[in-house]
Amino acid sequence: MHVLITGAAGMIGRKLTERLVKDGRLHGKAVDKLTLIDVVKPQPPQFSSKVDAAVSDLSAPGAAAKAVAERPEVIFHLAGVVSGEAETDFEKGYRVNLDGTRALLEAVRLAGGYHPKFVFTSSIAVFGAPFPEAILDDFHLTPLTSYGTQKAICELLLSDYTRRGFLDGVGLRLPSIVVRPGKPNKAASGFFSGIIREPLAGQDALLPVPDSVLHWHASPRSAVSFLIHAAGLTREQLGPRVNITMPGVCCTVAEQIEALRRVAGDKVAGRIRRAPDELVARIVAGWPSRFDPRRALALGFTVEKTFDDIIRAHIEDDLGGRIAN
């Protein structure tokens, strides 16, 4: 099986690559080739099968056609501009998040006689206020950010290309993925990771929103499991609605901090500093916070039970079990 991963240099792309290399198989089929592309060259893993790693901007003419020229059976489309950057750089957000996705979908369609599994990472930012108490999977899409709008348009495209039989698509509306290892990125949601990651590493963290902010979370470990599981879902299981809201852990920022205190102690939790940011607060205020994930759970997706579990997953997977006291 040939697997293509776009956005492979990003955190989820790297962890998905690691998982595929470790398992060597995807839903019972041996992975005999990995193609990794991103706007910066992904680091090729040590793998017994063939690995191609290349720099590619899918919105550039001909790039998407080149990406699917060898007809990978499974495409994980993770490439994208994050929420904060999509809001501050309007043109770049639409070029990468919308034009790049459309180009990849079109490249598959124009290849002819080619029907890959196409797993797309969407976002809960496709939903906009006013919200019900808990958002069902089929709640209407009324995004309040450019990022959410771009993802919502791509969901509609994915659904139509699947309906027309050009590919076998499934879109995953991911929660905020925390704790993200490495350096902070430009995502408006980045502080959700920062207030855990930096204190665990012995550094101060800035909190730009009030403690009362409520949000929906899952770990990188769960995000990879979502993607792997989605690649095995059939058309019969999904039915006509190919975009699914993933399960998550719902908690306030205050509850995140208390979870950090339980797992790592008062000294670590005390490294969080208040630093209000109006732009971040405005973006986050337009995001949904509580979902009813019964459809995803019925389809077999699983997630952590508590935010404590999310913190522990970060310590195990990214810190080697060690924290800075």
Summarize the structure in words.
The chain is an alpha/beta fold and 325 residues long. The chain has a domain at 2-175 and 219-245: NAD(P)-binding Rossmann-like Domain (Rossmann fold, 3-Layer(aba) Sandwich). Helix content is 40%, strand content 18%. The protein has 13 helices and 14 strands. The chain has helices spanning 11-23, 63-67, 83-88, 90-111, 146-163, 190-200, 220-230, 235-238, 253-264, 266-269, 278-285, 294-298, 307-318, and strands at residues 2-6, 25-26, 29-30, 33-38, 50-55, 74-77, 117-123, 168-174, 176-177, 205-207, 214-218, 243-245, 249-252, 272-274. Strands 5-4-1-6-7-8-12 form a 7-stranded parallel sheet, with helices on both faces. A 3-stranded mixed sheet has the order 9-11-13. Helix 5 links the parallel strand 7 (117-123) and strand 8 (168-174). The model has no long low-confidence stretch (mean pLDDT 95).
In terms of topology, how is this protein built?
Elements: E1 2-6, H1 11-23, E2 25-26, E3 29-30, E4 33-38, E5 50-55, H2 63-67, E6 74-77, H3 83-88, H4 90-111, E7 117-123, H5 146-163, E8 168-174, E9 176-177, H6 190-200, E10 205-207, E11 214-218, H7 220-230, H8 235-238, E12 243-245, E13 249-252, H9 253-264, H10 266-269, E14 272-274, H11 278-285, H12 294-298, H13 307-318
Parallel strand pairs: 1-4, 1-6, 4-5, 6-7, 7-8, 8-12, 9-11, 10-14
Antiparallel strand pairs: 2-3, 11-13
